[in-house]
Specification:
Shape: globular
CATH class: Mainly Beta
Order of helices and strands: EEEEEEHEHEEEEE
Radius of gyration: 15 Å
CATH architecture: Roll
Structural class: mainly beta
CATH superfamily: BH3618-like
Number of helices: 2
Number of strands: 12
Helix content: under 10%
Number of domains: 1
């Protein structure tokens, strides 16, 4: 069984079937193409995208439905092709596609969630993509200070 050493979670053993492939990586991290979705009971609803190739690279995320139950991510043809799913709108509570918002947690000020470029994880195809919401009014920095103590 493969394993990685995560600076946050220590030794992580995983099965290859748990890996999400991001053919184009994430914006700013195009060289990291494989990630694990890490969910810890005591940390819910927060989850983490942990790079398989770089133990120190992980993104703190929230399911978009936690931020806005009515949120839906538009998946254009190019994004859909990469995810291997049909194009269309994916509601934040969709079971086949996990819609995540990457958090930014500054040293001072409120944490923010990026709803303008959510990460979509297609569970059946094990593929992921950060999908920019062109033409959307969704903010790239939605304050989530109510969640951070």
């Amino acid at each position: 069984m493969p394993a990685i050493h995560s600076s946050e979670f220590g030794q992580l053993n995983y099965d290859e079937s748990q890996v999400f492939l991001f053919p184009n990586g994430l914006h700013g991290f195009e060289d990291s193409k494989e990630f694990l979705l890490i969910q810890r009971e005591g940390l819910a609803p927060f989850c983490f995208l942990q790079s398989v190739s770089e133990g120190g690279l992980r993104f703190i995320c929230l399911p978009a439905r936690v931020i806005d139950a009515a949120y839906a991510a538009a998946v254009e043809a190019e994004d859909a092709g990469e995810l291997r799913i049909p194009a269309g709108n994916y509601a934040a509570d969709c079971r086949d596609v996990e819609v995540l918002a990457i958090l930014t947690i500054p040293e001072e000020g409120p944490a923010t969630a990026n709803l303008f470029a959510p990460v979509l994880l297609a569970t059946a195809t094990r593929r992921g993509r950060q999908c920019i919401q062109f033409g959307s009014s969704a903010p790239a920095a939605h304050a989530v200070s109510w969640m951070v103590a």
